[in-house]
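User: two proteins, same treatment. go.

Assistant:
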Amino acid sequence: DPDSVVLCVLATDEEDEGDIALQIHFTLIQAFCCDNDIHILRVSGMQRLAAILGDPEPGAEPRDLHCLLVTNPHTDAWKSQGLAEVASYCAESRDRN
């Protein structure tokens, strides 16, 4: 549901820059985001992003952090002040565009 997506984070490391399949994947994701007015944030340092997000739960499948979608839980009570700030920034940016 693109209406519930607040932000798309595309993350790479230096070794990913030569991966043509990943770059094509990113191009398609960016086109989808642009068509649906979803803000895109490109970051480097997937290992740092993994550290910020914390370790997955024991027994969980390995995570692919190349593309993260931050979604709006459709409630007024945000559990994270950081997510509330990101949502506020995105809403203000949409109003200016």
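Protein 2:
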Amino acid sequence: VRRVAPRFSILPVSHEIMPGGNVNITCVAVGSPMPYVKWMQGAEDLTPEDDMPVGRNVLELTDVKDSANYTCVAMSSLGVIEAVAQITVKSLPKAPGTPVVTETTATSITITWDSGNPDPVSYYVIEYKSKSQDGPYQIKEDITTTRYSIGGLSPNSEYEIWVSAVNSIGQGPPSESVVTRTGEQAPASAPRNVQGRMLSSTTMIIQWEEPVEPNGQIRGYRVYYTMEPDQPVSNWQKHNVDDSLLTTVGSLLEDETYTVRVLAFTSVGDGPLSDPIQVKTQQGVPGQPMNFRAEAKTETSIVLSWSPPRQEIIVKYELLYKEGDHSKEVLKNFEPTTSFTVEGLKPNTEYVFRLAARSALGLGAFTPEVRERTLQSSRCLSFPTLL
């Protein structure tokens, strides 16, 4: 009888399973004489010697936690042949390396990172959050490279950033975070609550508050002032101020009205100018009322509100208002307050308002015009009914 060397196969030769999963691996061998078949892991026999099957051996693996190689050994009088079956325990990816910031602008941060995983990952997820805000984390998904630029950020703001990897099992733990700050920009808003008053008949003091959106470290302010507000601001007189929220401007002409605007600047550039205010160069007169607003209350009344000038003793307010642009202005005087209701107006009609404060020494500058329309009349026409 012709003898045939043993030959065998392992089906399949490798498996991918979840942590704690079960799998059966089968070794089939043929030959003449038929070989005995056993399984080994390293030097350890997994098949009892007195119970070694012939031709076929199934190894049952349960609660598999780690990847491992298993060796199938086929033996006969003709020799010994081996083959290896690979069992890969597929688990969540490991945390990537800590992100490294390679570039920042005023509105973006570019990071790179090491994968931290020997096996390929499907994609990466970036989570980031402003350190100064309590809002939710922002998420960027489906990133297939280890370099990414996060855009749409706020200037001069500190951000904390994490990266995690995703494979077919799911999303792994995040990396260690990196904290970095975006670059500066010119301020996006003007100084707030600009107010002026006279220290003497030729010197005024101007005060303000920081912009809501400084976009960086405020390096200073520029105060522009003029008696000809219709001229371009570039033609106005300019007064530079270091990092302070008030300044004095002297050598003014007496009994004149000056228009004043203020801007803030960072190392990058100038921000927008504040709304104009007016200051009368008459010692002791009040500054303009601040935050002057109008809101329709009914079809015949409008409510006005404002903040009083700083550090002034107001004896009364003077209100000028008119219907539209071409009618004559009406004057009303009233005691110090922060709101006033104008009544007896026409329905669905626009009115124009100006307000000034008066002290014992005189009347201050009027505010810029504020416009508001009364509500439309709710009354409707009714027609007689024919019976």
